[in-house]
Amino acid sequence: MTTNRTIHPSELTQLLQNRFAARSAAVGLLLVSLSLLAGASRSKSPEARLWLFGGSFVSAVLCRAVHKIAIDNERLFEDSRDISLTNWQNQLFKRTRDEQLTLEAQVQPETEKPDLLPLFEWGELSDSDQHPVLAVIAPMGGGKSRLVKWLGKYVLFDRQPSIVAFDIYARQSDWGAGGVTEYDQMLEIMEKDLAEIDDRKQQYRKGQDNFSPELRVLEESVDTLPNVKALSKDAEETVDSWLRVHVSVARKLKFRLCLVSVKLRGSDIGIGSESRDDATVIFAGKAGVKKAMTDTRYFRLGTRQNAELRSQLEASLAGVKRPGLIHSGGEWYPVSIPDLNENGDPVGGSKIDFAPSIETLNRLYKMSVNTEETIEDSQQLNDIQEAILDLSNKKGWIRARDCQQTGWSQFSGKSADDIRGEFLTLSELSLGLCRHSGGRLQFCSDEWDSEDED
């Protein structure tokens, strides 16, 4: 173990003095030895010559010893200097490192907050072309049945549908008269559905599309469908046909299918891995969100590569009382689930409000800065706003989809969110009112006469 030691100036002075004295003594003894040797060579007396040679030899030996002492002193000095320099360098490095660590500890870089993602708007699920397959994932008691009922009543259709649930574990209170627990009854309903869908296809080709909405709920398909297929030779073909039409043409005929499961595998929700991005999968409640966040095999949200996305989703769901996640079209969206009773109705009339974009809010703020300006002085209506007012004057309460379905050029290329933003703008301009119905934003012009409503 090396002792930290530095050379004091007094030690250096003493060392130099000792070094000089040792060298001087060595030189003096050498001169004495040479002088005695010269005297011995000139002496004619044998005794004197012997003494002189002896004295010269002793002087030479002493000179060598004193010279060795001088060399040892020099080496000791060099070693002490090297040790002192090394210790000084170590102390300097340690002090510099400690200062750097202290500075780094005091100045911690601020952690960047993840960008928040907009909440998914439930009304988008009414578009069966964009969301052909629906699935709800949640553990037992996670509110799957309530959510599915609410989706059927208020979101997927424009009126109350007939809901039939194939659920071998259902209790009477879960689905009421719409719950089917026996396999033979499930097969019978599937056969009737296929016949009804064929009939509706014929009517659809003739221009008829005002069909009564039908919602079919399939719980735990991996446990249910094999038993239905095993009932008869034709049962397997019936089940396959029933599934095939529900994920394709049936949705245009007001038939929708919602798959429900407590697990997260393609076989459990009735879709294959090649079509996972075609399914809109809803992870309901905190337990459902956790299941999605820890999934590393199917949607892979729980993998290290998606750590940043998980942080965004968690930050976006912070403060949401009943959180959920939706995977649609290969993208993830946070969602707020309404407080629902056992019948799927919002408790206390709670609604999922439409959240306008930041651009819309900024525009409304700028328009409200000078409250003394009128619409004529501050801003003329654009073509989209004029078209919205014209349509609402004729029909009353309208949705973004109503505008898109008119085929008017003013709405060409405009998204539903763009049109809803214009709804809010017109409402702020006191040219109409906005309301939410079934999770969707509607607008009505002030000039509409309710007596003209059909």
Question: If you had to describe this structure to a student in words, what would you say it looks like?
Answer:
29% of the residues are buried. With 454 residues, the chain is an alpha/beta fold. Mean pLDDT is 76; it is low at 1-5, 270-275, 350-357 and 369-379. Helices cover 49% and strands 13% of the residues. It has an eight-stranded mixed β-sheet, with helices on both faces. It is built from 14 helices and eleven strands. The protein has three domains: 9-106; 122-349, Rossmann fold, CATH 3.40.50; 358-452, Winged helix-like DNA-binding domain superfamily/Winged helix DNA-binding domain (Arc Repressor Mutant, subunit A). Helix 4 links the parallel strand 2 (162-166) and strand 3. Helix 5 crosses helix 7 and helix 6 packs across helix 7.
Oligomer: single chain
The fraction of residues assigned to DSSP E strands is: 5-15%
What is the typical, i.e. mean, pLDDT? 76
Provide the domain count: 3
User: What's the end-to-end separation, in Å?
Assistant: 100 Å
Structural class: alpha/beta
